[in-house]
Each structure stands twice: as structure tokens, then as C-alpha cells.
Amino acid sequence: MPGTLKITRIGILSPDGDTTIFPLQNERNKSREARLRRQAKRLGLCVTKSRQRSTHSNNHGGYMLTAIVTNCIIAGASFDLNLENLETVLDRVSGGNG
User: Fold this and answer.
1) In whole angstroms, what is the distance from residue 39 CA to residue 91 CA?
2) Which domain holds residue 42?
3) Alpha helix segments (H runs only) across 15-82
4) Residues 5-54: tens digit of each pLDDT
5) What is the model's pLDDT at position 5?
6) Does the predicted TM-score (pTM) go above 0.85?
7) How far apart are CA 42 and CA 4, in angstroms?
8) In this structure, is residue 40 part of a structural domain?
């Protein structure tokens, strides 16, 4: 049906079928993100999620990890971390103690 939105596993597709509008995030990813944010805060770090709806070379639509005090980027300068990468970086920063 032309002009309708299509809901998929990864998000809502625009009528042209190739643009994701409002990506959907399931409850498991929300709780995982919250846990990683808490872990980062305990380490003096901040997790920032990209707010861009479309991606480009300087913004891949993922996450960035910064130091709270110095505001220095620890990882994901182009918002190129996904939750799995973010978890790996936080484990390495914490010395593997989670």
C-alpha cells in the first residue's frame, strides 16, 4: 500500500521503504543500556547516545563514551559504538571486573 509506514524488527520504515524512522528498541536493550550507563558512571564515565536520525561520516548513530571530569572522548568519537562494543570497552576500562 503506497504511503503507509511499515513496522519491522529494526524500526519503522518510511513509505519509500529504505529510510528507517524511529528505530525500535526492545526492553532487553533498554535494560542493557541502563546497566552499561550505571557501570560507566561508577567508573567516572558518561555514555552518550547519538540523537541524529540519519547517519553520516561523523555520526554513525551509536554511542560515545566520555570522561565526566575532563569531557575527553574515551571511545566512539563518531558515535560508532554499539551496545556490545560499549560493554567491551567498559570491561577493559574496569580491568575486567565488570
Assistant:
1) 9
2) 26-93
3) 27-42
4) 555 555 655 566 555 555 555 667 888 999 999 999 999 999 999 887 66
5) 54
6) no
7) 45
8) yes
Beta bridge partners of 59: 56
d(CA 26, CA 11): 10
Residue 38 maps to a domain: yes
Read off the pLDDT of residues 79-91 as tens digits, 9 standing for 90 and up: 899 999 999 999 9
Residue whose C-alpha is closest to residue 78's, from 94, 53, 57, 97 = 57
What cell was used for 25? 528498541
**Is 37 in a helix, a strand, or coil?**
helix
- Asked if residue 49 is part of any domain, the answer here is yes
Q: Does residue 77 form part of some domain?
A: yes
Which grid coordinates belong to 96? 575486567
Encoded amino acid at 16, one letter: D
pLDDT surpassing 90 at residue 69: yes
Q: Considering its fold, how many domains does the chain have in total?
A: 1
d(Cα 57, Cα 32) in Å, to the nearest integer? Answer: 26
